[in-house]
Amino acid sequence: MSLRVYNTLTGKKEELVPREEGKIGMYVCGPTVYNYIHIGNARCYVSFDVIRRYLRYKGYKVIYIQNITDIDDKIINRAREENTTAEEISRKCTRAYLEDMESLGVEPIDVQPKATGHIPEMLGMIEKLIQKGYAYVVDGDVFFEVTKFEDYGKLSHRTLEEMRAGERVEIDPRKRHPMDFALWKKAKPCEPSWPSPWGDGRPGWHIECSAMSLKYLGMGFDIHAGGQDLIFPHHENEIAQSEAYAGAKPFVRYWLHNGFLSIEKEKMAKSLGNVILVREILERKYNPNALRLLFLEHHYRSPIDFTLDRLSESTEAFERLENLLGDIDDALEVCSVSSTSQIETGEDVSRIVSETRAKFKEAMDDDFNTAAALAVLFELAKEAHILLQNFKANPTAEARDLLIEIGKIFFELGKVLGLEFGLSIIQESKIKLPRTQELLKLLPEKMVSDLFDLYFELSQGPDTKETRARLKEDFTKILNTILDVRKRARERKDWKTADNIRERLNGMGIEVRDVDTPRGYKWKFSFQRVIDIYERSR
Ligand SMILES: [Zn+2]
Question: Can you give the pTM of this predicted structure?
Answer without folding.
Answer: 0.79
